[in-house]
Amino acid sequence: MRVRLEPGSLPRVREWAAELNARRDEVLATLRDEGVRVESVFLDGETLVYYLKADSIDQARDVYARSEHAIDTYHQRFKDETFAEQTQLELLIDFQNL
Fold it and tell me: 31, 64 in Cβ contact below 8 A?
């Protein structure tokens, strides 16, 4: 997913990233609940690019929507404040060498 950020939100983005990194155990607990194996977020100028690998993306979204984890509430507030536009990206290649 590609997310165009609200203008001037880069300081908030860096604060959010630092907060999630500081609360790593909480983040990992929510990922386990959601069946998410990998979640990476890249910053490209005023855009975030999310990479998510999950057992089921739909299930992960459903679990996130019902989550009572404090870190998910924090993340949702961040999204409400900084996301201007979201675009789903088309997956072209996905190799795994397990």
Answer: no
